[in-house]
C-alpha cells in the first residue's frame, strides 16, 4: 500500500505553462472536487500548474468506487518518469540521464503537487550562476551527493573529478564566485558522460566545453580558462 501511495504522488512533477497550455481534464474531474479530501496537496507557496487544470491530467479512474477504504479509485495515466516526460521533453534525445530520473523518477528532486521551493524542488537549489556556495544552499544536491564534494579540499574518494587528491569540485564551487552545478552539468540529461554540458553561457556567448573523458581523468577547454588536464593517478 505504501508503494502504491508513493506512485500516486509521483505524478505532476515539473510541468511548465508552455508545456501544459491547452490541456483539459479528460473525465470532468476538477481540483475543487479533490481538495475536499486532498486539500493538503494544494497548501504550498508554489503550485504545479497542472493541478490547477485538473487532477485527471495525470490521473484516470480505475472504474472502482472512490473514495472507499481499500479501493484504488484512480491511478496514474502512465508510469513515471514517462508520465512527466510526456509533457517535459527535457531529456528527449539525450544519451545519458541523471540517475535520479532513471532510478527513482522525477519526484526525487521535484514535488508533484506543490512546493515551498522554486520549480517545485524538494529542497534548496540556487538559480544564480555564481554564488558563495554552502551545503544549505545546495540542499537538493546533497540529499544524494556527499557534502565533501563542496567541503573537502582534498579527497581520494568523495569525487572522481580530482587531480590526484585535489578536489576539483571544491575549487570550482568555493570562493566569492563559486560556480553553480548547472554551469558545467545538465541536471536532467546529456550526450556526454558525467552529464557534462556541451556548452555553457557566458554573457551573450555560448562557450564550448570541449570536455574529453579519459580512463584516469579528462580535460576541458572552455572559454573561461585554457586547456586543463586532470588525472586521478
What do you see in this structure?
The N terminus is likely disordered. Strands 13-14-15 form a 3-stranded antiparallel sheet, with no helix packed on it. A two-stranded antiparallel sheet has the order 1-5. It has 2 domains: 93 residues, no CATH class; 109 residues, no CATH class. Strand 13 and strand 14 form a beta hairpin. The protein is 19% helix and 17% strand. It has 233 residues and is of the alpha+beta class. It has 8 helices and 15 strands.
Q: How many domains make up the coordinates?
A: 2
Low-confidence residue ranges: 1-28
Summarize the biggest pleated sheet.
3 strands, antiparallel
- Care to count the β-strands? 15
Largest sheet, spatial ordering of strands = 13-14-15
Can you give keywords for this protein?
single chain; 233 residues; alpha+beta; 2 domains; 3-stranded antiparallel β-sheet; two-stranded antiparallel ribbon; 8 helices; 15 strands; elongated
Short synopsis of the structure:
The protein has 233 residues and is α+β, with helices and mostly antiparallel strands.
Write the layout of secondary structure elements.
Blueprint: H1 2-9, H2 17-20, H3 31-38, E1 46-47, H4 49-53, E2 59-61, E3 74-76, H5 82-85, E4 96-97, H6 99-104, E5 114-115, E6 130-131, H7 148-151, E7 162-163, E8 166-167, H8 168-173, E9 178-179, E10 189-190, E11 199-202, E12 205-208, E13 212-213, E14 217-220, E15 228-231
Antiparallel strand pairs: 1-5, 2-3, 4-10, 6-9, 7-8, 11-12, 13-14, 14-15
